[in-house]
């Protein structure tokens, strides 16, 4: 059995198989809905149900009309009319499952490792700058990591892994990896990509390893010689937590973008910016009308930035986020 999913105030409609989520059905039919974690935590895919009903693995039974429904977890039990925050026509998602080889593991920060994986000879990974992949562990569970390399470097992927206390991957698998060892991955996932149809100045907002997809976006923009202004605000507790600050400073010095590091716990003698990274953006710009914002990092930051920036004049459709939801804890 399948169900008809219609989008309110539009002619968009697609079929959803029994047991399939609304988000998965939309992707399969060639429609892009904003999402990040796909686990019902980050709220990026939140939308309304105008009519019809279903069952959410996080929210329980859902019956329209209702708002703030997580489309990544919603499986319909009838035909349904939905009101997503945004939906766009795209080519249907084509994902690959590949066995990648460990090439190098480095540690640029005290709690961050950079994992370089190589694809099989002659195989290329097609993805958009800012997207992520999933690593499948031996027990069948998966971990999401953004690809930090730009799409033109398609024979390998670079992942920035934050060490999580008790982490099955970051403190378990990662520590035992050797060169040549295989990891099974599926890619690509995510809608956190620079909107090419816009020429508005873009504010790139990151905390921690949220820098990874931003790095991909910036290096892709440089490769494609995009002329729109880019502003990178990278927040961390301490200076050493900005584990690739030298690279960001290099972009700044070459005029590729404006880089502003922000520390919430600055050391004595720090003369740069301090406080919350999203509040620093407001201090510098005031009204955000006429901008686009791409925020990536912990959910508290992305949520606070969204609420604050919309109040400061940013159109809701010009805010894009990728909330890093940690699932790397042993059960």
UniProtKB/TrEMBL annotation:
A family per Pfam: FAD_binding_6
Single GO term (MF): oxidoreductase activity
Record-given protein name: CDP-6-deoxy-delta-3,4-glucoseen reductase
Organism: Caballeronia udeis
Cofactor(s) needed by this chain: [2Fe-2S] cluster; FAD
Domain of life: Bacteria
Domain FAD-binding FR-type: 95-195
Residue span, 2Fe-2S ferredoxin-type domain: 3-88
PANTHER family named in the record: NADH OXIDOREDUCTASE HCR (PTHR47354), PROTEIN RFBI (PTHR47354:SF5)
SUPFAM superfamilies: 2Fe-2S ferredoxin-like, Ferredoxin reductase-like, C-terminal NADP-linked domain, Riboflavin synthase domain-like
Keywords: 2Fe-2S, Iron, Iron-sulfur, Metal-binding
């Amino acid at each position: 059995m399948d169900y008809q999913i219609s989008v309110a105030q539009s002619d968009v409609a697609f079929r959803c198989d029994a047991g399939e989520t609304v988000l998965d059905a939309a992707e399969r039919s060639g429609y892009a809905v904003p999402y990040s974690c796909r686990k019902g935590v980050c709220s990026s895919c939140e939308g309304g149900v105008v009519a019809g009903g279903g069952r959410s693995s996080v929210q329980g039974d859902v019956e329209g009309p209702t708002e703030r429904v997580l489309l990544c977890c919603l499986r319909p039990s009838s035909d349904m009319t939905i009101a997503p925050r945004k939906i766009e026509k795209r080519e249907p998602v084509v994902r690959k499952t590949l066995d990648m080889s460990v090439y190098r593991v480095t540690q640029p920060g005290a709690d961050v490792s950079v994992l370089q994986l190589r694809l099989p000879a002659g195989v290329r990974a097609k993805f958009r700058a800012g997207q992520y992949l999933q690593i499948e562990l031996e027990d069948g569970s998966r971990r999401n990591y953004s690809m930090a390399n730009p799409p033109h470097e398609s024979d390998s992927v670079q992942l920035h892994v934050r060490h999580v206390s008790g982490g099955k991957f970051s403190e378990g698998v990662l520590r035992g990896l050797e060169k040549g060892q295989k990891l099974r991955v599926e890619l690509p996932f995510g809608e956190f990509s620079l909107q090419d149809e816009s020429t508005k100045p873009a504010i790139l907002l990151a905390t921690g390893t949220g820098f990874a997809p931003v790095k991909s976006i910036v290096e892709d923009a440089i490769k494609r010689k995009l002329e729109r202004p880019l502003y990178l605000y990278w927040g961390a507790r301490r200076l050493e937590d900005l584990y690739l600050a030298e690279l960001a400073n290099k972009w700044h010095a070459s005029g590729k973008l404006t880089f502003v590091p922000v520390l919430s716990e600055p050391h004595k003698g720090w003369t740069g910016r301090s406080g919350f990274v999203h509040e620093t953006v407001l201090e510098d710009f005031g009204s955000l009308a006429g901008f686009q914002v791409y925020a990536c990092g912990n959910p508290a930051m992305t949520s606070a930035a969204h609420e604050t920036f919309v109040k400061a004049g940013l159109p809701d459709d010009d805010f894009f986020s990728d909330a890093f939801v940690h699932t790397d804890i042993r059960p």
